[in-house]
Write a structure and sequence with these properties.
alpha/beta, 6-stranded parallel sheet, binds S-adenosyl-L-homocysteine, about 350 residues
């Protein structure tokens, strides 16, 4: 398979790409410069230089699941657990609103304490106080009825990474009780209810091959999500995967650019994990096509406890309290942080 500048130009024009070319592109950094330039071009055509800033509130790190890669898995007895109260969550929103954020992302482990009733109460309280803001939930796999109830309470977006679209890889990353079919069903339910849906995966997860990544991208094409969350896998010492290496910056950036070219309209965050593996990871993510950042709005005392992976970057520009630093950094990368609800721009 010979790649050339023409290959990338064609991807830019058609948003289509064969499996062979995808595999070849994923395997080399030779064309990164062209990939990033075209990804940036298509992003500017649709979103201009806007970077949407979302406030991330990690409200509980209790989790019933045992995903092998995740630091807050149920089996990690070294994890120090916490939950925020409704009042603490509302205080986070007040601070975020003051800082100009118009989307709040509420994420947690799968914590039985947060029943549907409690989640709906929190969502509707935020919704009535901040009717001009979007509420995004990321609280895992739930029944269709639960998703419907959260939607009726005012949640309009939902992040649920599919994690791995190949059954074989999914089974290596999760215990038997967790099934890819169930994950996919959840994503389908969310779409049908009318949420803006985010799926995605980690780059460089243990056992992941480039063919698995091709499967992930093909799955995303069939799902056609509004948001695509992609960050490097970062190893955590208190998980069964402690011996594995973390994913690479270079492959993550290349995938972000390919995703931007394949999904021109998607909302694509430069993730905290990307900012964690490299000091300039966030800026480089933006330059490779990302158009969303999610600084941490959780109370300072609990931020390090939501440790999905080691050394999580949650201070400095990752922190809402440093939003000036974050804005400067976005400007320096050539973009502009906007105070905007930042809905997806779907083609007409
Ligand atoms: N319970 C919610 C939130 C999970 S945490 C849910 O199921 O959606 C959010 C995301 O962090 C996960 O979807 C996973 O892709 C990512 N993550 C977990 N452990 C990680 C690790 N070690 N390195 C990088 N990302 C990780």
């Amino acid at each position: 398979m010979t790649l050339s500048k023409e290959t990338i130009k064609q991807l830019y024009h058609t948003h289509g790409i064969s499996n062979d070319i995808l595999l070849a592109l994923l395997a080399t950094d030779t064309w990164d410069e062209e990939l990033f330039a075209y990804a940036d071009r298509v992003r500017r055509e649709i979103y201009g230089d806007a970077v949407y800033v979302r406030g991330l509130i990690e409200f509980s790190n209790y989790c019933k699941n045992d995903c092998y890669y995740c630091g807050i898995r149920a089996g990690n007895c070294k994890a120090v657990r916490y939950r925020l109260t409704k009042q603490e969550i509302l205080d986070c929103c007040r601070e975020g609103y003051r800082l100009g954020m118009r989307t709040f992302v509420l994420q947690s482990g799968e914590d039985a304490y947060f029943t549907d009733e409690r989640i709906c109460d929190i969502v509707s309280s935020i919704h009535s106080r901040y009717p001009d803001c979007a509420i995004t939930l990321s609280v895992g796999e739930k029944s269709r009825e639960s998703y419907l109830a959260y939607h009726q309470a005012g949640a309009r977006r939902y992040l649920l990474r599919h994690e791995a679209a190949s059954d074989a890889l999914y089974a290596k990353l999760h215990p038997e009780q967790m099934q890819l079919a169930r994950r996919k069903q959840c994503l389908q339910d969310l779409k049908e209810i009318g949420y803006q849906v985010g799926a995605g995966f980690m780059v460089g997860a243990p056992y992941q091959t480039l063919s698995d990544i091709v499967s992930d991208l093909r799955f995303l094409q069939t799902l056609d999500p509004d948001m695509i969350g992609i960050g490097p896998y970062i190893t955590h010492n208190d998980t069964p995967f402690s011996g594995f290496e973390s994913g690479s910056l270079s492959l993550t950036l290349r995938i972000l650019a390919i995703v931007r070219l394949m999904f021109p309209h998607a909302l694509l965050p430069a993730t905290t994990a990307l900012a964690t593996i490299s000091p300039d990871g966030r800026e480089r993510g933006l330059k490779a096509g990302a158009n969303v950042v999610m600084p941490n709005l959780s109370p300072l005392g609990v931020r390090q406890l939501y440790n999905l992976y080691e050394n999580k970057n949650c201070t400095g520009a990752e922190s809402a309290q440093c939003s000036d630093t974050l804005c400067m950094l976005i400007e320096k990368a050539g973009y502009h942080a906007v105070t905007d609800i930042g809905d997806v721009k779907r083609p007409l």
